[in-house]
Amino acid sequence: MSALASGMLLVPNFLHGLDRGGLPLLANSNGKRLVVIQLSGGNDGLNTVVPYQNDLYYKARPTLAIPAREVLTLDKGLGLNPAMEKMRLLYDQGYVSILNSVGYPDPDRSHFRSMDIWQSGSASDEYLNTGWLGRYLDSLSGPSANYAAIEVDDTLSLALKGEQYTGIAVQDVKRFFQATNDQFLKQAAQLHAEEHSHHQVDYLYKTLIDTQQSAGYLQEKTKVYRSKKNYPNGEFARNLKTIAELIASGVESRVYYASLTGFDTHVRQAGQQANLLRELSEGLYSFVEDLRQQQEFDNTVIMVFSEFGRRVAQNASNGTDHGTANNLFLIGGKLKQAGVYNEGPNLQDLDQGDLRYSIDFRNIYATLLHNWLDGNAAGILGGKTQLLTGLL
Amino acid sequence: MKTSAREQKLQHLYWRAGFGIPFRSDQAIPGIKQAVRELLHAAGQVAPLQVTLPHTETSRQADAQNAEMRQLRQRERQQGFVLLNNTWLQQMATSEAQLREKMTLFWHGHFACRLREPRFALLQHNTLREHALGKFPDLLLAISKDPGMLQFLNNQQNRKQRPNENFARELLELFTLGRGHYTEQDIKEAARAFTGWSYNPQGEFVFRARQHDRGQKTFMGKRGNFSGEEILQMIVENPRTAQFLTAKLYAFFVSDVPNPERVQALSSYFYETGYDIPKLLEKIFRAKWFYGPDVVGSKIKSPIELLAGLQRQFDLTYADGRSPLVLQRAMGQELFRPPNVSGWAGGRNWIDSSTLAFRLRIGPALLQDAALEVSLKPDDDTEPTAPRKRRQDGLRTVRAKADLSGLHQQLQKVKDSELIEKLSQKLLQVPLRPETTALLTQHVPSGAAHADKVTLLTLRLLSLPEYQLC
């Protein structure tokens, strides 16, 4: 590796465009990218960003509340779960914005359906077959390769599926390349490189060729560079490392997507959630450090979300059940407003024991699309959204 | 008509009306008219899906309070869904009543519910199965009173004082009229008519008269003290319902490419026959255009069609009951777990780079008893709180044993020079391009024994995108 890889580190960012010349994405890119981190299972927001000055919080959670003296204090009477020391370090450097009470009207408490709503960007009584990021790919002018959006996983989430264009799921570039490198199929695909009469056969071959080409491109791009940064153990951090390597290798993707699972803490929540939040914070910290060293952090924004928060009161098993509104993190080197964006959740005015939302998540999407990715937010999200001011 | 042309038409019919034709040595080749009649006849009998769901007897008190009992119930639910899934898939693969299986699958995606309790899922399944080939108004009434449906769309919370519109909304939008053919006011008024439609823990429909709103309602321009039954009646009296259903059936059985002319003619017929489902299907299967080049081989197999087809033609036996579910989830269609109440979108929505690459590997891998690995996304609705190591998602390996002897027997007498042509006709619903045939020839060692050639070619053909079509 090295000669080329370390040489790459020294190339100023604007020059990177040179070795990316001719690739289809450059033409319609503003060079900014979005990394989405999905916390699957419904992360308990109240024990993530703790309203440690609120008696109602302690009343609702006699054994599960995090004592005020243990939280990592932030602002507006809120503090982080003590397992999130590294997130606090990022916060202190002005890289983190925390949005409270994010949700949507008529919330759904099924994991699958609520995730469906978040990933498609639909209303809760609306069913879409495309994801908000997939529609963003559709909206780009000119053809877009399917590595424009990469999910680090074996299967692709709805979020990255568009009508015309879809992202790709790649857990491991090498394995992905090998899996699509069957010589017989490559030869068969080449025979179909030009269209013939059967539209459905053509469509499948086109998808196959795109996949083979993307796999080849990613393999070629990333075979040299390996991140030297130390990441914590575990699959989540490994996936973040993969993203950092793709970015540092000059892969022209605008969107990356990764998940951390296991947040469905109905029983004995404290230990399990702390472990996960530590995994999240430490992974993200290494990732940010890595991107900073590559001069790639300023053009990156990371969004961390979960399909719903949990009920305000704890349950009888030292856990929490499915709830509604939740907090959401934005992390980036160039946030206009870091810190706690809006007031913490109102624990006095609950909807049958659940938090009411004050920020519709689609307004966050709209802001990311419009202010960050230069996308047509109204077209992608259906025009009913509003931009959040002062954020990006 | 040449035998091979007739065979191709039959294959087409059987892929669309069922899950393909099993390879048997003594295969009869009837004409289409007779084959359609046989399909309808075989599907005429209704036998409920027989599944004995695991249930450990205990007092109800122990159930609610004990954490271990909750875990046991959780496991039982999981096992229940594995059993339901396996049994139905097996039945699709082996049943003579192919059209009933296919039609039940259609209604399963049309009245799509994700239920928590396998026994409610079984009840619902058997309701769909019973009415799958009857008249739609009967099916609509039965499914509207189905406990799983009432639960999934919150109708047990639909009460006179506080109506819940969920069921009424989906009834109009997704089950009958379709978007743009009713008003928000129609939803509100319909919801009032369904107040008090509920069920008991045994899974029986219960009409709770005290929660029912007997007042006057205005629905689709008519005024009266309508009951839920009357609302359903008015919905099916609207020809728009026939159009909506016919368009969806056309997409399912014929083509993703809409054909307004054909759909209009079919839907008028459907309406005139009082929504007689077998009559409509017979009309479709006997139409000349059904066997036209724009229809044959134009559909992307759903994951269930792909798996049931493989199982039907190659007698797949999976190493364990979870395996078919793993494959289904990796490809985006798990029986009993539709994505939401609007069902599976189908068509090109099945395909992305990951699912296509996986689909191309499935056939060859399973037929060779090779391990298929895939990492599944979590399903927290069915596995809440399970420790991560013991979860059923994450990295999973799938294996199966297959039997190619039927295919071998059918091809025993075919000359080497005609093998690719004959085999591709049996396995594919679209013609191979000559270049692809030439490529296949190169990839088969000329000195290999006849049987080995058949096996090798089968694996190759199953790895081609063409095999994904029917």
What does this protein structure show overall?
The complex is a heterodimer of chains A (392) and B (470). Helices cover 36% and strands 13% of the residues of chain A. Chain A has 392 residues and is α/β, with parallel strands linked by helices. Chain A has one domain (3-12, 33-381): Alkaline Phosphatase, subunit A (3-Layer(aba) Sandwich), CATH 3.40.720. In chain A, α10 (235-248) packs parallel to α11. The longest helix of chain A is centred in the last third of the chain and has 25 residues, at 269-293. The radius of gyration of chain A is 21 Å and the shape is globular. Mean pLDDT of chain A is 90; it is low at 1-27. By secondary structure, chain B is mainly alpha-helical. In chain B, 53% of the residues lie in helices and 6% in strands. In chain B, β3 and β4 form a beta hairpin. The mean pLDDT of chain B is 93. Chains A and B meet through α5, β7, α8 and α9 of A and α9, α17, β6 and α20 of B.
Overview in brief:
The complex is a heterodimer of chains A (392) and B (470). With 392 residues, chain A is of the alpha/beta class.
Q: State the CATH architecture of chain A.
A: 3-Layer(aba) Sandwich
Into which percentage range does the β-strand content of chain A fall? Answer: 5-15%
What proportion of the residues of chain B form beta strands (DSSP E)? 5-15%
The shape of chain B is globular
The H-and-E topology of chain B, N to C, reads as HHHHHHHHHHEEEEHHHHHEHHEEEHHHH
Number of helices of chain A: 13
**Helix-and-strand structural type of chain B:** mainly alpha
User: Which pair of chains has the greatest number of interface residues, and how are they split between the two chains?
Assistant: A-B, 54 and 53 residues
Oligomer: heterodimer
Strand order of the largest sheet of chain B: 1-2
- The ordered string of helix (H) and strand (E) elements of chain A is HHEEHEEHEHHEEHHHHEHEEEEHH
Counting structural domains of chain A, the number is 1
Radius of gyration of chain B: 24 Å
Return the average pLDDT of chain A rounded to an integer.
Answer: 90
Structural class of chain A: alpha/beta
Tell me the overall shape of chain A: globular
The count of strands of chain A amounts to 12
Largest sheet of chain A: 9 strands, mixed
